[in-house]
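Hey Z.,

So I finally got round to the adenosine-5'-diphosphate thing we talked about over coffee. Here's the setup:
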Amino acid sequence: MTSDLGDLRSPPSAPPVPLAARAIDVVREYGDTGNRVRALDGLSLDLPARRFTAIMGASGSGKSTLLHCLAGLDQPTSGRILLGDTDLGRLDDAALTAARRDRVGFVFQDGNLLPHLTAGENIDLGASLARRRPERGWRAELVERLGISDRLRHLPAQLSGGQRQRVAVARALLGRPDLIVADEPTGALDSESGSSLLALLRACVDEYGQTVVMVTHDPVAAAVTDEVVLLRDGRAAGSLSSPTRGRVLEHVAALAAGAGVPA
Ligand SMILES: Nc1ncnc2c1ncn2[C@@H]1O[C@H](COP(=O)(O)OP(=O)(O)O)[C@@H](O)[C@H]1O
Ligand SMILES: [Mg+2]
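And the result:
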């Protein structure tokens, strides 16, 4: 005899949150025996898709190393990095280059522009290398939102540090990568340019469905994100959802004091 066991079964579990990227038990060591540095020490981190995550922690805690590994610019000594379902450690050089180019936008601390190309040519560089035509409308919107439309014919040396940084952001966002990785992107900006950059990164998540992970020291910038992950000595040392400036300050202070992260 069959009976309806529907009510007795456990309820179906909630569908898993899709992940844009994952670090699984990642160790990254530099140097060799004698002067070995463990920049990442068994770090695991899930980056949910369509979320804006901030990474905070003291200088030397491994933030930049983590971003380089997530972007496929550096390889862990052990552990795995997944981009969506792709295990970066299993890709050959050509596939890794293609994944980095097509799926990740990286905003470096120093902008990293080519000095002999104009701002506009630097912005188009990724698309040129991928032999893709930049989307004109999106490019115009980006340079407008970043306030650099009248600087496109200038060489990097003719721009301020903040303008160079914004050109680098436009270059990283032009190809609409799934994952945007930004290392202290507001560090060199005045507060107005910093706010418009944060609003743009927020729009990448809310309007365009991209995933952003950003290293920052600024509690105001962190408060724009969905979640703050704290690093200490190359490991995750706590996290904070729906951060506010005040709660970020509390967490950072607790981390610096070596105390547990407040609930
Ligand atoms: N290329 C490298 N060679 C040797 N040590 C490095 C290298 N890159 C980073 N480190 C070391 O790894 C640790 C973490 O560095 P980093 O990821 O840059 O930290 P953060 O971005 O949080 O300041 C530091 O001790 C740093 O000196
Ligand atoms: Mg750094």
